[in-house]
Design a protein that fits this description.
The structure holds 2 protein chains of 2 kinds. Chain A is an all-alpha fold. Chain A contains 11 helices and no strands. Classes of the chains: A mainly alpha, B alpha/beta.
């Protein structure tokens, strides 16, 4: 009897998955997004094996092949040190994705928890303090703030990550604040209050699980934006430094050689656009899926 | 006289809004005896749900006193002791939103056991026992609320309420969101577990026919005020307040015999006014067929006209016992 029940639940879950996949794949753009993200992830993870010239990622000079245009040996050309652009882009995916992941890992829990607390205690001084601080951070244009922080600190990959984190958490506290406020008056939250459940239980076991799908969707959409802002910082020289092949400083390095050696700038720029577009399309697809499910 | 579980004295709950102060509950007094079902009826917006929420502490009261088993309750639910929360529980109107969609039924019913440290060694068995008590299949523990129908969800909400072994449950329109066949099942279950577990109910509904079958005593609310409190049989056969008469005469019946039992037909006129602008004097006077001059000026007090039969109406002002 136990086994039949298990099979029943399993089959139900499978049917739900199939249903969700159909809904997701009915929009071709979502599929494009998913495939782009998978390609980027694959290239990033397996960069040392996929890249045709893996030694190109770092301090490597090959004066015989400096500034070669795209050819069959170097599909995307070489840069001013003779390094293969395509190999460097693959490693660039690595750094940019790692940066985005590290930033989101820092920012999402922090912002979400602050927003949850403020939303659950809405109307009290806790709410006022947390949300006014959030508002101050939201009021300052994010790129300006990031530039200010980065220029105060030593320009490096780590510091640019800190700068982006500082300006990114308020979005998550805003999001979870809104959800917490609306869930706080739901009967199931009131019921757990009447039972006598502790505040941490109500925050993290009752309210938080119901915030996860919008937060997850926002995360997917945000990967693109975080990469963009990281690339912007790298472009103005405040992010990752040479010889780290972050996509932003590859574009930046190439601008000095424009327009004659256009491949040095254009291919990394396309790589950035491809990554951001992929994550955004995927995020949109996921958002549509969850929005439909929730109504 | 039997043991008194709950006594509410001059309970007041006002809400401040941009349009003015909403007098949701205005000096409401009643008591509930052990094993009794006290029914609160009234139109939408009469403050009957707010009364229950205020007693449970979801809203802290603006004024008045609540005594539970002789102990005075103060403030909102968060400032009340845990033992009290174990002893009084609530079932909400909408079973759809009263269960967390991310928790399995087992987790939902287990929560009160965890919080109150009950059956620490055999919680799973206890959850199954409770499910059996309300007549739900045992494999529900692994299901999620979205896989259940409305009536089943409400039975789960009832299971959660009885899990902490309370002596008092506030039922806020527990059947109004369900279809009729399910209503009967829920009501039968509620009455059965009331006997089995010796529970006292505060039963809130706007369905008078249902009230007649469920309640031992009935109170009728209008614009936050209790207008009449009487034992059920008396309430339906010999209502005193013109508002009660109006409502009871509006219950649809099928047979002539039933028609004879009812007081003469009084056509209801007007609608319940906004609780922001409560009419002066008796709140009901603009709709009352027996309205007299004094009704728009003096507000009547609650008086005991017959034993256990209280009414708040100027017509009976000199019949006080």
């Amino acid at each position: 009897m136990n086994e039949t029940r298990f099979r029943f639940l399993n089959e139900e879950r499978k049917r739900e998955l199939v249903k969700n996949w159909r809904k997701f794949s009915s929009n071709p753009l979502s599929i494009v997004g998913l495939i782009s993200v998978l390609i980027v992830l694959f290239l990033a993870i397996f960069a040392p094996w996929v890249a045709p010239y893996p030694q190109s990622w770092g301090r490597w000079v090959d004066f015989n092949n400096v500034l070669k245009p795209p050819s069959w040996t170097n599909w995307m050309g070489t840069d001013n040190f003779g390094r293969d652009i395509m190999s460097r882009i693959f490693f660039g995916f690595r750094y940019d994705l790692m940066m985005a992941a590290a930033i989101l890992v820092m920012v999402v829990p922090l912002g979400t928890i602050l927003g949850l607390i403020a939303g659950y205690f809405s109307g009290t001084f806790i709410d006022t303090i947390i949300m006014r601080v959030t508002d101050v951070f939201l009021a300052i244009p994010s790129l300006v703030l990031a530039l200010a922080i980065c220029s105060l600190l030593e320009p490096s990959l780590f510091n640019s990550m800190m700068a982006v984190s500082v300006l990114w958490w308020p979005w998550y506290s805003r999001l979870s604040y809104g959800i917490a406020i609306s869930l706080k008056n739901e009967y199931f939250v009131q019921a757990s209050e009447l039972i006598g459940a502790s505040t941490p239980h109500i925050l993290f076991r009752e309210i938080l699980p119901n915030c996860l799908s919008p937060i997850f969707t926002k995360m997917t959409l945000d990967v693109g934006w975080v990469i963009l802002i990281g690339a912007s910082l790298a472009f103005v020289g405040l992010g990752a430094q040479e010889p780290i092949p972050a996509l932003g400083n590859m574009v930046s390095a190439g601008t000095k050689y424009m327009p004659d050696y256009w491949w040095m700038t254009i291919f990394p720029a396309i790589a950035i656009a491809f990554t951001i577009l992929g994550f955004n399309l995927l995020g949109d697809g996921i958002r549509d899926l969850l929005a439909v499910e929730e109504v | 006289m039997s043991e008194e579980i709950l006594r509410v004295k001059d309970l007041i709950k006002f809400f401040k809004t941009t349009q003015g102060v909403v007098r949701a509950v205005d000096r409401v007094s009643f008591s509930i005896q052990k094993g009794e079902t006290f029914g609160l009826v009234g139109e939408s917006g009469s403050g009957k749900s707010t009364t229950a929420f205020t007693i449970m502490g979801v809203y802290p009261p603006t004024g008045g006193e609540i005594f539970f088993k002789g102990v005075k309750l103060t403030g909102g639910v968060k400032s009340r002791p845990l033992s009290l929360k174990k002893d009084m529980q609530m079932v909400f109107q909408d079973p759809g939103s009263s269960l967390n969609p991310r928790h399995s039924i087992g987790q939902i019913i287990e929560l009160p056991l965890k919080v109150h440290k009950l059956y620490e060694n055999n919680r799973k068995e206890r959850v199954e026992e409770i499910l059996k008590m309300v007549g739900l299949p045992l494999d529900f523990t692994r299901r999620y609320p979205r896989q259940l129908g409305g009536g089943e969800k409400q039975l789960v909400a009832i299971s959660r309420a009885i899990a902490s072994e309370p002596s008092f449950i506030a039922l806020d329109e527990p059947t109004s969101a369900l279809d009729v066949s399910m209503q009967a099942k829920i009501i039968n279950t509620l009455l059965r577990i009331q006997k089995e577990l010796d529970l006292s109910y505060l039963f809130i509904t706007h369905n008078l026919s249902l009230m007649r079958n469920v309640a031992t005593r009935v109170g009728i609310m209008y614009l936050g005020k209790l207008l009449e409190v009487a034992p059920t049989s008396e309430f339906f056969i010999k209502p005193l307040h013109p508002y009660t008469k109006m409502l009871i005469s509006s219950i649809p019946v099928i047979t002539k015999e039933e028609e004879k039992l009812k007081p003469e037909r009084i056509i209801s006129r007007g609608e319940i006014p906004s609780p922001v602008n409560v009419p002066p004097g008796c709140a009901f006077h603009p709709r009352c067929v027996e309205c007299q001059e004094m009704c728009s000026k003096t507000e009547p007090e609650m008086i005991e006209v017959e034993e256990n039969h209280y009414v708040r109406c100027n017509l009976y002002i000199d019949q006080s016992k």
